[in-house]
Amino acid sequence: MLGNLFFSIHFCVNWRAKITLIEEPNRPSSNPLARVYFKIGRYLISILVVTAVETATGQNLDRQIDSLQALLKVAPDSSRFEVLFELFRLNLGTDLGEAERFAKEALKISSGLHDTLSLVKSNNALGYLKKEMGYPRLSISYFETALHLARLKNYRSQIKFLLNNLGLAYQKTANYARALEYHLESLKLREEDKDTQSISVTLNNIGVLYQDLGDSENAFTYYKRNYDLKTKAKEFYDFELCLTNLADVSNALGRFDQAKSYLNEAFDWCAQSRQCRKKNIGLAQQILGYSYMNSGELAEAEGEFLVASSLFSEIQSPDKIDSYRAIALVRFRMGDYDGALEKLNIAQSMATAYEIPKYLLQNYQLYADIYNKLNDYKKAADFQRKFITLNDEIYNADLIKNIARVQSEHQEEE
Fold first, then answer.
1. Which residue from 8, 73, 155, 249 lies 20 to 30 Å from 46 (Cα-Cα)?
2. How many CA within 13 A on the CB side of residue 192?
3. Full-model pTM
């Protein structure tokens, strides 16, 4: 294993040496392809090293799983829950199907034992899995069952986790007012506990919610609060995600130079700390692609989107949808309408399977734009009608009224 690790590091260093002449983030090469290769070279360096380390860690993980499965065969019912829950946790990053199997068995055991805390944890685990698999509607009943039980016993830490998970699940199903209620209640508890990392998570989630609503100013406010909190407390977990979200909303506000500045800071942080998660680097590459696209640099944008797509694993379904749609959008702007349709069809098949309204809405609008350019006005009109119908369902007068009510109640409590 050490030999493989040395080979990966040696290969990365040599690859980096080949592109040192264009490794100038503030003065990118005038050659679009050179810039694309620069990005690939620079930001996959750390990923290749991490992959080698992950291989070593993965072997250790396999041994842990094997040991726990052996223990499970002889463990009495009173101890089986802890073993099953640990097996669920260890499988989360590699095999969601196996993680679900262990979580279901843990729920069965905890029901037999009538142990409330175990019931809370196993319901939360199954809800989390459904959400991560791309089925947020199916996750809500598990989370609500767990939250009800946690409130009965006043399991404060579990209540905070569940409020956060319910906020995210309702957000993904476009029930934004309900999501905001849960996120703001979660934020209140976390601020009372003065837990910086925990507060940071909720500030980020509220920022994402406002961005989904199209309220970029409020989104920026919460993202900036998160950034200020992290830097002041020197709590840098997921710092690259914080910077990426600031860049994303800066793009939406038309502040393209500011967006690139935040992204440069994110990439520098990843190079310096070597702590960035692969998925977050992919998100940063994707937002950089949007910065290029909004500046009219389409070749550079496509290169960033392709790199981002390669960094998302198959279990990160929503991110895959985003990346396919991004490639479709840049090809549309290039005038490659057939190429745009090819990628958008992939994004649409995934969005339909997972029933996430935000992605369906974005895809309908892009379909309408593409078919208009192809002079297929019937299909364009069909997708435009779908867009209008879904848009009205999500962003209706009740939503605006309910968001205003939740915001007002939160301000009164403060």
1. 249
2. 11
3. 0.76
Tokens 């396919």 belong to which residue?
A: 324
CB-hemisphere CA count at 13 Å for 252?
A: 18
Contacts of 164 (CB under 8 A, 6+ apart): 182, 183, 186, 201, 202, 205
Q: CA nearest 322: which of 269, 244, 221?
A: 244
Distance CA 20, CA 277 (A): 24
Q: Are the CB atoms for 380 and 372 separated by under 8 Å?
A: yes
Residue that has been written with the tokens 């389409």 in this structure: 298
Mean pLDDT score of the chain: 82
Helix axes 196-212 and 239-252, enclosed angle (nearest 10): 20
- Distance CA(5)–CA(271), nearest Å, equals 18
Tokens linked to 17:
């040496």
Closest CA to 207 of 256, 157, 241: 241
Top pLDDT among 320 and 354 is at 320
Q: Taking the C-alpha atoms of 70, 72, 74 and 78 in order, what is their torsion angle to the nearest 10 degrees?
A: 160
Show the tokens assigned to 260: 């690139």
Separation of alpha carbons 125 and 200, rounded Å:
22
8 A C-beta contact, residue 291 and residue 260: yes
Query: Does 54 have pLDDT greater than 60?
Result: no
User: CB within 8 A of 185, min separation 6: which ones?
Assistant: 163
The whole-angstrom separation of Cα 36 and Cα 38 is 5
Question: What gap in Å lies between CA 402 and CA 408, rounded to an integer?
Answer: 10
Q: State both tokens at 318.
A: 């929503």
